[in-house]
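Input/output pair, single chain:
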Amino acid sequence: MYFKYDIDGSIHNVWVSPYRKTVDVYDGKIEHTCDIVDNHFTYRGHKIDLDDFISFSVDDFNEKLRSSNEFITSDDLISTILAEGIKNIVFIVPMIPITKYENDVAYPKRCVIDETNYALRDNNKIEFLVCDDDYRDDVVSRRSFDIDDVISLMKDEIILMRKLGA
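Output:
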């Protein structure tokens, strides 16, 4: 997935390989491949920690998401979650009743990200798991979405993202 790094005062898009062995640094139109060693890569003499990527705060992300002129990508969502810490983010997600009657409505439930089936860094799907204190027997307790669908649902305020404790 792509992360943004400030390297010597310039912002670069950096593709981090799924197995975190190499990165591809894009400098204008030129791509430079660098090896990852001890969670760092070296580009033009600068040693960069993989965890020092540029990200939004949860509040900034939500504000930019709802701004009509801002384009938000799945990489932006994932980098925001990773920067804040997966365990420090809670989502309000509509969960479907198990009975699934014709007129059933989805219940908004407090959820956390569960990476049992999908790793967040794979930039594919996000699986939400209902928090223990919001669990109900008659409502589905986990639900998976494509990441781009999550962004659309967040833009429409159907799924909400909050920093834990906020």
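Helices lie at 58-66, 74-84, 147-155. The two ends are 28 Å apart (CA to CA).
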